[in-house]
User: Which sequence fits this backbone?
């Protein structure tokens, strides 16, 4: 019958022989089986380690915030550049049989950051880590996710490289296009920063009920609509003067000059695509006497946002906010923002921008380490991620 060796919860019965020697022999074997089972359980559960793959100290701030929320220490690893600019990664503790979370925030040196992540993932793979999860809040090259002329889909290439290096799971935030998830053959959790930005609007913008959500182009209308419906506010769209114009006449498609080819069937004449004609810039929606809140996913080159702010100011908006998840703020973006009609730019800390904040006090930061740390905890414990996507629709 079940005894102290098998435990009270055992669901099978063992009849021991009367012989004392045989009884001792079987008891020893059962004790060994019990120890082996406990050892197997410990390996299966395992532990986890959180590493930062950045060689730049300024980029490790988000990783420190995440580990503080998780109540663990940041993994011991050294990431540095050799004199010849090669990247070297040295992991200073055992990762065998554990879940490894590699946090990589993308600095201005994008290509170095990508190589750091690839090399650290491969180092963990060759050190027998059980699972290697990349925490990449801003996924680099996400704007290069479509075929343009004779270019390439670099985002797909990067997805293949990450999987080949050993990553088994990706945690990211607000991909530029949700379809990027289809580039991967490993699970991808695309978290949303909108709950944090919506909370900022409600807590920090006085009289936000008098605000209107603005899309600076028709392409951003879906995101703006999502914000407007959740805040119960109106929606405006700026139309005209496309931000990213494609000049087909200078890309070489028409060289050499068109010459009638006698080899082509004389009856084959393809219809000519009419060139686009940009309409005068207009604002669809009433912004007069209101707070205008422009929403987007990435702020990099701010010329489009500055131009939109000028138009909104002319149309009567008395305050202008810009909200975005990823604040790349490249080149002279802080100076342009400081001199513009924009009152405040609110971005999350998916990308470090402390230097830009010193140059422009209009830039504010929202911390998203809470949702990233919760995602790490749930993935390690095998819990459902659906809690982090409550009320998220397909269009969000």
Assistant:
């Amino acid at each position: 019958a079940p005894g102290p060796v098998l435990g009270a919860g055992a669901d099978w019965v063992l009849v021991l022989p009367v012989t004392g020697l045989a009884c001792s022999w079987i008891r020893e074997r059962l004790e060994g089986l019990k120890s082996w089972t406990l050892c197997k359980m410990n390996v299966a559960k395992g532990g986890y380690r959180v590493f930062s793959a950045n060689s730049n100290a300024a980029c490790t701030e988000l990783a420190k915030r995440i580990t503080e929320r998780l109540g663990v220490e940041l993994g011991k690893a050294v990431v540095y550049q050799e004199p010849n600019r090669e990247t070297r990664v040295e992991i200073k503790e055992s990762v065998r049989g554990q879940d490894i979370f590699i946090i990589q925030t993308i600095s201005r040196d994008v290509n170095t950051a990508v190589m750091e992540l690839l090399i650290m993932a491969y180092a963990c793979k060759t050190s027998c880590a059980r699972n290697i999860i990349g925490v990449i809040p801003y996924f680099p090259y996400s704007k290069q996710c479509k075929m343009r002329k004779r270019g390439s889909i670099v985002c797909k290439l990067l997805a293949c490289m990450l999987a080949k290096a050993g990553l088994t799971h990706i945690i990211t935030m607000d991909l530029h296009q949700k379809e990027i998830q289809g580039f991967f053959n490993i699970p991808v959790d695309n978290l949303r920063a909108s709950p944090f930005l919506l909370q900022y609007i409600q807590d920090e913008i006085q009289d936000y009920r008098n605000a209107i959500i603005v899309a600076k182009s028709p392409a951003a209308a879906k995101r703006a609509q999502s914000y407007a419906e959740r805040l119960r506010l109106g929606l405006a769209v700026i139309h005209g003067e496309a931000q990213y114009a494609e000049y087909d006449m200078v890309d070489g498609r028409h060289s050499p000059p068109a010459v009638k080819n006698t080899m082509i069937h004389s009856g084959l004449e393809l219809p000519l695509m009419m060139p686009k004609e940009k309409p005068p810039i207009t604002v669809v929606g009433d912004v007069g006497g209101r707070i205008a809140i422009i929403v987007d996913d990435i702020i990099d080159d701010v010329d489009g946002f500055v131009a939109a702010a000028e138009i909104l100011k002319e149309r009567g908006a008395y305050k202008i906010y810009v909200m975005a998840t990823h604040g790349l703020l490249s080149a002279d973006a802080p100076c342009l923002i400081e001199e513009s009609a924009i009152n405040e730019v609110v971005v999350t800390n998916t990308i470090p921008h402390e230097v830009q904040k010193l140059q422009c006090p209009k830039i504010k930061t929202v911390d998203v380490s809470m949702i990233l740390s919760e995602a790490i905890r749930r993935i390690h414990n095998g819990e459902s991620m659906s809690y982090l996507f409550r009320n998220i629709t397909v269009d969000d």
Confidence is low (pLDDT under 50) at residues 1-18, 34-45, 242-250.
